[in-house]
TrEMBL record, chains A, B:
<dbReference type="InterPro" id="IPR014756">
    <property type="entry name" value="Ig_E-set"/>
</dbReference>
<feature type="domain" description="Moybdenum cofactor oxidoreductase dimerisation">
    <location>
        <begin position="274"/>
        <end position="368"/>
    </location>
</feature>
<keyword id="KW-0479">Metal-binding</keyword>
<dbReference type="InterPro" id="IPR036374">
    <property type="entry name" value="OxRdtase_Mopterin-bd_sf"/>
</dbReference>
<keyword id="KW-0560">Oxidoreductase</keyword>
<keyword id="KW-0500">Molybdenum</keyword>
<feature type="domain" description="Oxidoreductase molybdopterin-binding">
    <location>
        <begin position="57"/>
        <end position="229"/>
    </location>
</feature>
<dbReference type="InterPro" id="IPR000572">
    <property type="entry name" value="OxRdtase_Mopterin-bd_dom"/>
</dbReference>
<dbReference type="Pfam" id="PF03404">
    <property type="entry name" value="Mo-co_dimer"/>
</dbReference>
<dbReference type="InterPro" id="IPR005066">
    <property type="entry name" value="MoCF_OxRdtse_dimer"/>
</dbReference>
<protein>
    <submittedName>
        <fullName>Molybdopterin-dependent oxidoreductase</fullName>
    </submittedName>
</protein>
<dbReference type="InterPro" id="IPR008335">
    <property type="entry name" value="Mopterin_OxRdtase_euk"/>
</dbReference>
<dbReference type="Pfam" id="PF00174">
    <property type="entry name" value="Oxidored_molyb"/>
</dbReference>
């Protein structure tokens, strides 16, 4: 007997103590990419800078006009829709900050071996599409429905299971009005780029990225709980292999700094000049809205409130900017921001570990070196 | 005395035997990104999929209309140009395949510690701009000029040297007609995205990426050889630390496969079904044009010619597609393509090592698992 599908997959594992990033993690890191954090200066992330994570390959769709979306399962009127059909429904535009559920994974100890994000797996876009609830109304979803299952065109093997990427939402979330789930056809006013789901994707404001199924081909209403791989095996908060775990859902509160000053190429350490520095960044939450951002410039000894952009309907599901003044004096400084949400949740200083490395929102420190001379930089290292 | 600029930089080094990718290499890999190789199917790389390497931060340029480009040094009429001024010169569009000089670095043994590319640091775009030779004519470059120096707005520290990113070209290259160097303002018909040099960059068809200075602010004609960091310290082909080395210049011939079949999420191993498979990919060279592409499906025992897209003026500096038929039979297969250029250069099977990991064009093998069953994939790994 020849090779089997399972032969290309290894079980999930944790990195050993001191184990460097492996060839498999690197292969993911070179394909997928984060938001360079200096680009948090833009309210809406410019094309190509928004984070991207693709489980398998990016499907090749040279003829978007031929794409079909089906709505079927426990419905009274199954739908088979072209892009033109979708555009005949009312269109809604929502500004959404998307974050990968695995953001921060590579900073955990022990490190779950998977896509090795630091904290840059985030981005914000204006997504336009038809509210999913209108499609489900049109199709007549059955009152006994439990889950709505979304299937993408991306196909591959994961932990020995060959699959199309597939996730579900409870019917109440799929038909909810706040957040309103979209079947999106444009990103920042342009057709979706291939890596963001061309020509169609789901947008679930406030939820981690795994829910926003890209290259969407079918919506299936089900009267049973969906037990597919990405729902019951992946994307669970587990402490042990046998733990069934809780599902990963909404984005935990997080604030990040635009790294101040300028970097060293290799170490990425930051340099600033002595004097006044504006510290700025972004904060977001898919749970209760961000209520405050606090900044520490002394390694966590003290935390001071930053000026936070007011909440508006426009930024309900998107990040908000914050800023504060800092007087840099010579020495090594550890800076960080942390978000506090309206339910009083504060970003933790320590890690909240789980085997998948999901939904971790520990405070991220930025080491800044404030040099007391400006002239020595022009000379090569002696 | 407080910290100095040099304190944030460590000397260049090689990874030890079995040393995994480090935190510094990972920080670069999460910011910069390659072309997912399945996207080689597009003649012109869609926005956001083209490889990106930024030494420091991406400069923030909210008001591109205020940008100025100066042309000075050994010229009779120094220029100080707005974007509108640049657009009053004749505009040329050239399709160019850009590749990072460090592409393939992470596959070398020992591995130079830097941006850890596998082989995906490549992309193709249509760049539009004014030929540099017209600007140098307008300014009246002195006949005794040697180098033309290009300064970008990206600022940082590298190996202890604080610097704006700066590179030079010999006057004959800067004023040459084939390739014709461009000061580009558009990429694929749109303004340059921030990560590709908004609002201005240099395009030097056929040269590795380090020559294509982004966020271009000044062009300085010099009667001496430029000895800046990126010219005489970085981007040299050295065997030892003390070796002055040869400069990195034009892109060595390379062919790559669009990975066939579908991948495993974590291992990135490829699966195909038994039966006919079209193998396809791209080939390019900044030296003599690609004359042939050869494919091996048996780990290098034999090489067969592929069908290569004919050379045209349009693709002189861009990749060309190639394809060939393959009958997949059950088992593990090692596939590769290699380019042969018009001067008879063949991509090597073994590495051509140097301390920077530059200009390496060793043949890249793709392991493909052809499973003799299709049904087992639907079951979880037992």
């Amino acid at each position: 007997m020849g090779p089997r599908t399972a032969d290309v997959s290894a079980p999930a594992r944790l990195a050993g103590p001191e184990e460097g990033i492996g060839a498999d993690e690197l292969a993911l890191a070179t394909r997928n990419h984060g938001l360079p954090l200096e680009a948090m200066r833009y309210d809406v992330t410019p094309p190509g800078l928004h984070y991207v994570l693709t489980h398998y390959d990016i499907p090749y769709v040279p003829q978007a006009g031929a794409w079909r979306l089906t709505v079927d399962g426990r419905v009274s009127r199954p739908l088979d829709l072209s892009l033109a059909d979708l555009l005949s429904f009312p269109q809604v535009t929502t500004r959404v900050t998307l974050e990968c559920a695995g953001n921060g994974r590579a900073l955990l100890t022990p490190r779950p071996v998977s896509q090795p994000w630091l904290v840059e797996a985030v981005g914000t876009a204006d997504w336009t599409g038809v509210p999913l609830r209108l499609l489900l109304e049109e199709a007549g979803a059955a009152p006994d429905a439990v889950d709505v299952v979304f299937t993408g065109a991306d196909h591959g093997v994961e932990r020995g299971v060959e699959q199309d990427y597939r996730r579900a939402l409870p019917l109440a979330v799929a038909t909810g009005g706040d957040p309103e789930v979209l079947v999106a056809t444009t990103m920042n006013g342009a057709p979706l780029p291939p890596q963001h789901g061309r020509p169609l994707r789901l947008i679930v404001p406030g939820w981690y990225g795994m829910a926003h199924v890209k290259w969407l081909r079918s919506v299936t209403v089900s009267d049973t709980s969906f037990d597919g791989f990405q729902q019951t095996v992946a994307y669970r908060l587990r402490q042990t292999v046998d733990d069934p775990g809780e599902p990963v859902t909404r984005i935990a509160p997080r604030a990040l700094l635009v790294p101040p000053g300028f970097p060293d190429f290799m170490s990425r350490a930051r340099m600033v000049r002595p004097g006044p520095v504006t510290l700025e960044g972004r904060a977001w939450s898919g749970q209760a809205p961000v209520a405050a951002v606090q900044v520490s410039t002394d390694g966590g000894v003290s935390w001071e409130p930053a000026d936070l952009e007011p909440a508006t309907p426009r930024n309900r599901w998107a990040w908000r900017s914050w800023r504060t003044a800092w007087l840099a004096t010579p020495g090594d400084r550890d800076l960080a921001a942390r978000a506090v949400d309206a339910d009083g949740r504060v970003q933790p200083l320590g890690q909240r570990w789980n085997r998948g490395g999901f939904a971790n929102n520990a405070v991220r420190w930025v080491r800044v070196v404030c040099a007391d001379t400006v002239a020595d930089g022009a000379r090569p290292r002696s």
